[in-house]
Write a structure and sequence with these properties.
Number of domains: 1
Distance between the termini: 42 Å
CATH class: Alpha Beta
Number of helices: 2
Helix content: 25-40%
Order of helices and strands: EHHEEEE
Radius of gyration: 15 Å
CATH topology: YaeB-like fold
Structural class: alpha+beta
Strand content: 25-35%
Strand order of the largest sheet: 1-5-4-3-2
CATH architecture: 2-Layer Sandwich
Length: 106
């Protein structure tokens, strides 16, 4: 018997895309660590990609009828994402530095 894994579609909102660019810029240009910047962004992208197979793996923050808001921690960053089970979609809402109070934004 072969099991086919369900894959959720991943959508990255503009705010999250902006944050990824800002993280890369900060690590590369401000801290002068381009190798760390590249590895950090690569790790964030891999973890986001993994959500297509296991969208409910990380901490649940809020649940409504068809959607869940969850949080994933990757290195020094918190990724806030929404899982819509009805349309099998994961939406990356935003990315925050761990010391920032992200809860006021969700």
């Amino acid at each position: 018997m072969i099991f086919i894994e369900e894959r959720y579609k991943i959508i990255i909102m503009d705010e999250a895309k902006t944050q990824i660019k800002m993280i890369k810029n900060y690590l590369s240009n401000i801290l002068c660590e381009p190798i760390i910047a590249k590895k950090t962004i690569q790790t964030i992208q891999e973890k986001i990609s993994d959500l297509s197979y296991m969208p409910r793996k990380y901490q649940l923050l809020r649940k409504d009828a068809d959607t869940e808001i969850r949080r994933m921690i990757v290195k020094n960053y918190i990724i806030i994402y929404q899982v819509n089970n009805e349309i099998e979609t994961v939406i990356i809402i935003n990315i925050f530095y761990v010391r920032r109070n992200y809860l006021k934004f969700i």
